[in-house]
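Fresh eyes needed here. Kindly weigh in on this sequence plus structure tokens:
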Amino acid sequence: MDMDRAQHALLTDLANLARTLGSPQRLLLLQHAAQGARPVERLAELSGLSVANASQHLQHLKRSSLVVAERKGKQVLYSLAGGPITDVLGALTRLAQHQRSEIRSVISASLTQPDDLEGISLDELLERLRDSSVILLDVRPPEEFAMGHLPGAINVPVEGLEDHLPLLARDREIIAYCRGPHCVLSTSAVDIMRKEGIRARQLNAGFPEWKAAGHTVVTGA
């Protein structure tokens, strides 16, 4: 009987967590909060929400221990809470990709990857970095790059990538990465580079997964 109660309590917690995550706006806020601590005004701007709406969603996320709030002067900064949150978001993305496997085109609203854009895992990336056989390309905005990025990465936001293509080295494969499992910036970047004959793949994970795995993070421009 005690076991039944414990199982019911666990399933209730899971259901409550699922309800909290059952919002595209909250998933987007989590994606941005995973890049580093930010005030609600900036998170609202990045997510296309009003400050009041973003604040309401953040309170839901905070109650579910998915984000933490820290006061810094007059501002309250929100960032991702501890625990395997990026793993959960990654698993949800993989499930969505599986269920939508018939979608093969690269579009900004899609969470899928075409077969010919198969990415590279964190483990393989670490191996390739050790022998200096790849170039790391961070295609997030400069603000996020400065808050934290992979060692040795160069920052070229995806919206300006086409102008920088002539400057990219062609002697090594380029690995593009962005915000994490829900971000398609790196997918678009790889598509742009491949159309120009540049060898490129995307990192299956993103900056939050790299950081959560305990790997070195560099800050600053």
Notes: The CA atoms of residues 178 and 214 lie 17 Å apart. Residues 102-116 have pLDDT under 50 and may be disordered.
